[in-house]
Write a structure and sequence with these properties.
heterodimer; A: about 240 residues; mainly alpha; globular; B: about 300 residues; Rossmann fold; Alpha-Beta Plaits; 2 domains; 6-stranded mixed beta sheet; 4-stranded antiparallel beta sheet; elongated; binds adenosine-5'-triphosphate; binds magnesium ion
Chain lengths: ~240, ~300
């Protein structure tokens, strides 16, 4: 992966967009603060605001996670890889481990970067957050971890689907399309499902304030997300071992 | 030694390999021959543990490929040329494979030099020509200095110089005591390169043995005869033990009888001959004859007749 130049460009683009959104959101709020209602001022969560760009990171890390596997299938490199290491489970574990470390580092750098840039642009009278305030460190660290886990989930999907376009579609579908569709439906129906969507889980993680009954608590949601990644990798691993390469 | 034991492989209801049994001996080049779609590549993928056999197994020196701890050090394979990420450089591709099997960096440089890619080692594989891709695949096969080598149509896309180079490379590898298994659909090429042959058609074993035996039994002499009274002559010649094949243009291909004997027989019977010419069947003819019934994809002549008549 590191030998492929496009990966580096993709990561750079991801950093620019994610950090850019944090900067943009913060400066917009700082300039409009005077026009905000009291309620809006009181419920303003500066941490969550500065981590909003992570949604784009989630999209892009998913694409990269998909490409880790599907590029091998698309180019036929998978045969060379499996000839070098016929124990297929090991191949998937090794790729997942390397990608998880990469995604976690990138995720944490962008979460902390976004947070610091965002907070630095929130000047008085706008309140800003610090890492020592309760829940803030969890939101920032958790935001980075969500990136890493979603990346693994995408990698698992690609191992199952084996085609870039199909796997990316499935990933974006779960991440964005399904929540958008659900939101158009009656909340009595959509609420219980929405709670399980990565979008909701990630929002709860990156918010300092509690999301009430509309979301799981941050770490419960995170555990569910880890479950998704494990299930997709387990199914992918089983298929990888039993299918022809 | 490679040992293929009763291997069967189905793709949906298409039987690609059908109860195939053969051995690939050590120290010689073994040619793997068969028409298009006869199952050569599938068999090689099964030997490499890439496809799973439905029945039977293939072992290399007694061990299935998937049980080898550092497989590249024992088996090297060129399966499809250029099945490599186009964004990677040749060096990186080989270095990546080398690392997974504990092969030193020095060796990567050695094989790149051996196949003549040193000028382009740091270029992206996507920019490689077919022949360069083929050379890179050969470099990957040689990387772990393995005792067993599989090449699936290695001369595809190579120029005459490249073909000669591969031929000598294969012979050299075999003479070092390695097991060398090469597929091709060109009998003539295998006659020059291989010592031993495995011939398949429609996934089934047709023949296996030394190239010498193959030539002796198959590349026989025959006499081409044209006459206005072929039926009569055919009966007379057959009575003398000749084997006769009626060709599409109405001529007879007579084997087991010399031109003199045919001339005397027809003269005695008062049958005119328009042509009486001794021919020697090429190995290619022998191969086509042998696999005729098992060719899946026949070419068609422009007049609409099937080029080979008794196939499917
Ligand atoms: N992945 C696959 N899915 C379905 N059918 C396949 C697959 N791979 C091979 N086949 C079928 O199996 C048969 C054998 O194919 P194979 O590629 O092994 O032949 P081959 O002898 O290598 O032919 P060629 O000389 O053209 O390379 C063919 O009928 C082919 O269509
Ligand atoms: Mg083939």
């Amino acid at each position: 992966m590191r030998t492929v130049r496009s990966t580096v460009w993709t990561l750079l683009a991801m950093a620019v967009i994610t950090l850019g959104i944090a900067a943009l959101a913060a400066s917009t709020i700082a300039s409009r603060w005077n026009t905000f209602s009291v309620v809006r001022r009181l419920t303003f969560d500066p941490t969550s605001m500065s981590l909003r760009g992570l949604l784009f990171s989630q999209l892009i890390i998913g694409v990269l996670g998909v490409l880790v596997m599907s590029a091998e299938y698309g180019t036929g490199t998978i045969r060379a890889t499996l000839a070098a290491e016929p124990r297929r489970a090991r191949v998937l574990i090794a790729k997942s481990a390397v990608f998880f470390v990469l995604a976690a580092v990138v995720g944490e750098v962008l979460a902390f970067g976004g947070f610091l840039i965002g907070q630095s642009l929130l000047t008085s009278p706008v309140p800003h957050a610090t890492l020592t305030q309760p829940g803030v460190l969890r939101a920032v660290t958790g935001g980075g971890l969500v990136i890493a886990v979603l990346g693994l989930f995408a990698l698992g999907l690609a191992t199952i689907i084996r085609h870039s376009a199909g796997a990316i579609t499935a990933y974006v579908g779960v991440l964005l399309v399904v929540p958008i569709i659900l939101q158009t439906l009656p909340s009595s129906f959509s609420q219980p499902i929405l709670k399980f969507m990565p979008f909701t889980i990630s929002n709860a993680m990156t918010s300092v304030a509690s999301q009430g009954s509309s979301a799981f608590s941050p770490w419960v949601g995170f555990a569910i997300l880890v479950g998704y990644a494990i299930v997709s990798l387990a199914i992918g691993g089983w298929l990888l071992a039993t299918r022809d390469a | 030694m490679i040992d293929v034991r009763g291997v069967t492989k189905r793709f949906k209801d298409n039987v690609a390999v059908d109860d195939l049994n053969f051995e690939v001996p050590t120290g010689v080049v073994t040619g793997f021959l068969g028409p298009n779609g006869s199952g050569k590549s599938t068999t090689m993928r099964i030997i490499m543990g890439l496809d799973h056999a439905d029945q039977g197994e293939a072992v290399i020196n007694g061990t299935p490929y998937s049980k080898l701890a550092q497989p590249l050090r024992e088996v090297g394979a060129l399966l499809e040329a250029k099945a490599i990420h186009p964004g990677r450089t040749a060096f990186n591709h080989l270095w990546f494979l080398a690392q997974s099997n504990g092969i030193p960096r020095r060796r990567v440089h050695d094989v790149i030099e051996l196949v003549g890619l040193d000028q382009v080692a740091n270029r992206r594989v996507g920019k490689f020509s077919l022949g360069m891709g083929q050379r890179l695949g050969i470099a990957a096969a040689l990387l772990g200095d393995p005792g067993t080598l599989l090449f699936d149509e290695p001369i595809n896309g190579l120029d005459p110089e490249g073909i000669l180079w591969v031929r000598n490379l294969l012979k050299g590898l075999a003479s070092e005591g390695r097991t060398v298994f090469v597929s091709s659909h060109l009998m003539s090429e295998m006659a020059l390169t291989a010592d031993h042959l495995v011939v398949i058609g429609r996934g089934r074993l047709i023949s296996t043995g030394s190239v010498g035996d193959f030539i002796a039994t198959n590349a026989g002499q025959y006499v081409r005869v044209r006459t206005p009274r072929p039926d009569e002559l055919e009966g007379l010649l057959e009575a003398q033990g000749a084997q006769i094949r009626r060709e599409g243009d109405g001529s007879l291909s007579v084997s087991n009888l010399s031109a003199e004997q045919i001339g005397i027989t027809s003269g005695n019977a008062g049958i005119f001959l328009y042509e009486l010419s001794p021919q020697s069947a090429s190995l290619e003819d022998a191969f086509m004859e042998m696999t005729r019934d098992s060719v899946e994809y026949h070419g068609h002549r422009l007049d609409g007749a099937t080029a080979t008549t008794n196939g499917k």
